[in-house]
Amino acid sequence: MDGIIKAILYAAGIFIVCVHGVPSPNYATPDQGFFMISHYPETGRSSTLHIYAIENLGRDGEFSITKEGGLPSDGIQTGLITTPGNGMTFGCFLQVNERNRLGGVRYGQYTGSFALNMGGNQLSGYTFVKPKSDVLNTRGVQTVTIYPSSITSNDLDEPVSIGVAHRPGCRAIKWCKGKKRNINSGPRLILKHTDDAGLYTIQRRGKRASRGWFVHILVIAATCPESYFASGPGCAFTKRLCLNGGVLSDNNDRCICPPFMVGTQCECAASFDGSELLLGDQLLCDDLPDGDPKCKGYLVCYGDNYGCTCASGWQGNACDRACPKGRWGANCEQHCPDSEPDCNRFYGPSSNLYKNGCGTN
């Protein structure tokens, strides 16, 4: 199906719609099959900004991308995401060009959705872009998932601390949660209950009327404890083990895999030969507008409990710092095994690669 794209501007912001058809993938995908990407998640005022919305379960539908607070029409471009070889369509993108006067407006939360043409629930996603600054530093943390201690309690097993590193003398730090203002001050916030979930804006005011600096951290509350998933009115225990940083879905007995890991247990790298990073069937990072063959600078945001993370092999606020020796995977959170202390920072040990038999069963 040929893609159709249109942009509708309104008072609250920009609304981008794509109608498209996509091919069916040939391997397991994240729970929703829909995700958002920002490139770069931390950026300067004069850099070109790309937001991508991608669906990879082979369904026809309509995308939309909205920006919290809106964007002026000048300097905005939209288009379809297609593969150059056969023209298959996987989604659409929003591009905000290099214009200094748009710099501060571009920062904040972007929300995407995918509505099935044949009916059913609308899938939604989000991603974030923040100003490049060392005043407030989340150390690459964009989302945090918290779990209740039991199926009958909203308390967490242990308190979870979220916050920012900041410049010495940076004292005027305020926290907002949604529309609730000044719920906390200082660089850290302690989460104790699943009711603490929500979108937090951490802000330090600038001089005079300046908005100053701000960052977002989204706290996601799982419905059930870890190793459990929602089943009817309650929670069901599962013995499924999610590997390579995967987490159990909130909605069923499935693993949600980190970017570029696939399989029922996230046991395989989404690569056919060890040199390509696949975002979908035949869709490479290099196929995206302004794409990088190694996915440098990509913050990939899935639904359900997984949240947002840097592409495999990268870490940091801008997802542009390579993994150090002995680490690999999304946000560089995985450790190389003793048998391969210098394993590939994108794919980990060689056993994860398709060319070595992974994913053939």
What share of residues are in beta strands?
A: 35-45%
The stretches of 5 or more residues where confidence is low (pLDDT under 50) are: 1-14, 19-29
| Mean pLDDT, all residues | 82
Task: Please tell me how large the radius of gyration is.
Answer: 20 Å
Order of strands in the sheet with most strands: 1-2-6-9-10-4
Q: How many β-strand stretches?
A: 34
Give structural notes.
With 361 residues, this protein is mainly beta. It has 3 domains: 4-131, Immunoglobulin-like (Sandwich); 136-221, Immunoglobulins (Immunoglobulin-like); 241-356, Tie2 ligand-binding domain superfamily (Tie2 ligand-binding domain fold), CATH 2.170.300.10. Helices cover 0% and strands 45% of the residues. It has strands at residues 4-10, 13-20, 34-39, 42-43, 49-55, 61-67, 76-82, 89-96, 108-116, 123-131, 136-137, 143-146, 148-150, 153-163, 165-166, 173-177, 180-185, 188-193, 198-204, 213-221, 228-231, 234-237, 247-248, 255-256, 261-262, 268-269, 278-280, 283-284, 298-302, 308-310, 314-315, 321-322, 327-328, 334-335. The protein has a 6-stranded mixed sheet with strand order 1-2-6-9-10-4, with no helix packed on it. A hairpin with a 2-residue loop joins β27 (278-280) and β28. The two termini are 32 Å apart.
